[in-house]
Amino acid sequence: MNTMPLVSIIVPVYNTEKYVADCLASLLDQTWTDLEVLCVDDGSTDSSLKIIHAIAARDPRLVVITQPNGGVSSARNSGLRRAKGTYVGFVDSDDTVDYTLIASLMSQMGPNWDIVIEGARRPESVVGIKEKADFASRVLRNELLNSPCGRLYRRSLIEESGLIFAEETSLGEDLLFNASYLSRARGVRTISGKRYFIREREGSLTRSFRPSKFEELMYVHDALRRILEWAASARMDSVLNYLRIKALASSLASARASRVIRDHRDMFARAKAMRESYPHLPVDLGDPQMRAVGWVYARLGLVPLTWLVVLSRWLRELTRHILRSKFVSAELGRRSTNSMTRVEEL
C-alpha cells in the first residue's frame, strides 16, 4: 500500500479453511475502505494460507504474514508489530462482521478517545478516574472485556505502554490485555448494537477441557485483580468475586462435557475441592443475578451453578446461530441488490 492506512485489522489464522474466506470478505467489503487487513497465518496445516494468498492477489489491502505455530496471542502480537494504522482492531478468522462495523466505530473515535467498543447495552462516553473505575466494573460484569474483537484501539497507546498479549497462557489473555489497556486509556466510548458475529466451534479452547484449565483461570483472575487495583471498590470486589465463581463453574462444566467427570460422585468431589480452595467469595453488591450466584455458591456450592453454565452455553449458541442466519440473509440481499444496480448501469 502506498499510503498509511487509518485502520489496521489483525486476523490470526490457524486451520480455518472452511471460514477464513467469509471472514476476509466481510472485512474487505466494509463501507470504510481506508484500512489494511493483516492476516497472520500461525503455521496452518490445511489450505488456509493458500486461500489467503489467493484473496490477497485480488486486493492489495490484504497483507499476508506467516510464522511457525505459536498460538493466537503470538499471532496477534506479530500483527501488532507490523500494523501501520492509527487505530487497530482484531477479528478472529472463523468470525464475520457487519459491513458497517469499522465505519460505526470510527464515527465515534476522536482525539479524546482511546478505544471504541461495540456491543454495549447503551452508548457511553467515559473520562476521568472515578468514571472509568465505575465503567470498568460494569464492562467486566457484562463481559465486554473478554475479547479484543469488535472494537478499535489507538495503536500509539499500545506501543507507548508496551502492551502485548500474554503468550504464557491460552486462557484469559484477552481479558488481561483489555484490562491493562483500559487502565491507561484517557477516554472510552461504547456503541450499542451487534456488528460482530462469533462462530463457536466444538473443541475451542473456551469450551474444551484440559488438566491445566483450572490453574490457568485462577492465574488470570489473580492477575486481573492486580491490574485493576487502581479501580478498587466494594463493587469491583463483588464483580471480581462473581467472575471467579463463574470461572470455577465454567471449569467444572468443561470437565463434565469432556467426560473427565464420569459420574455425579466425581463431580461433587471436584466441586468440593474447588470450593475448599476458595471458601469466601462474597458478592454483596451488584445486580440480582450477581448476588444470586454469590448466594448459591456460599450456601449450595458449585454443582447447581455448573448446570446453569451448561444451559447458558446452549442458549448463547442458539442465539448466535439465529443472529448469523439473519446476517447472512441480509448480506445476500445486499449483494444481490448491488449486482442488479451494476447491471442496470451497464
UniProtKB/TrEMBL annotation:
Superkingdom, natural source: Bacteria
Coiled-coil blocks: none
InterPro entries in alphabetical order: Glyco_trans_2-like (IPR001173), Nucleotide-diphossugar_trans (IPR029044)
GO molecular function, one term: glycosyltransferase activity
Keyword Glycosyltransferase in record: yes
KW Signal (keyword) present: no
SUPFAM superfamilies the record matches: Nucleotide-diphospho-sugar transferases (SSF53448)
CDD domains per UniProt: Glyco_tranf_GTA_type
Keywords: Glycosyltransferase, Transferase
Residue ranges of domain Glycosyltransferase 2-like in the record: 8-134
Name of the protein this chain belongs to: Glycosyltransferase involved in cell wall bisynthesis
Naturally occurring in which organism (per UniProt): Tessaracoccus oleiagri
